[in-house]
Design brief:
Blueprint: H1 10-24, H2 28-37, H3 42-56, H4 62-65
Helix pairs in contact: 1-3
């Protein structure tokens, strides 16, 4: 079941959006601890686990799409 941000109350929505970057930076063990603490807020938990990547993935910058290769001159070995 997909839960959209629109279905959450403004308070829940704010909590989930605020949590996502911090949760992503944590170790899996810490993420599991947060999931246990958030059990009472099932809607936010479902949203967090299903849409974690959606919030954190940014569109690549146009210049990052094409990697420019620079050819270095051969190094002299003394």
């Amino acid at each position: 079941m997909l839960v959209t941000l629109a279905k959450l109350t403004p308070t829940q929505r704010e909590a989930v959006i605020g949590l996502v970057p911090r949760v992503c930076a944590m170790t899996p063990a810490k993420q599991a601890a947060i999931r246990i603490r958030m059990r009472d807020n099932i809607e936010a938990l479902k949203l967090c686990s299903q849409h974690l990547c959606m919030f954190t993935q940014k569109e690549p910058e146009p210049e990052q799409l094409h990697v420019k290769r620079t050819i270095l001159p051969p190094q002299r070995r003394d």
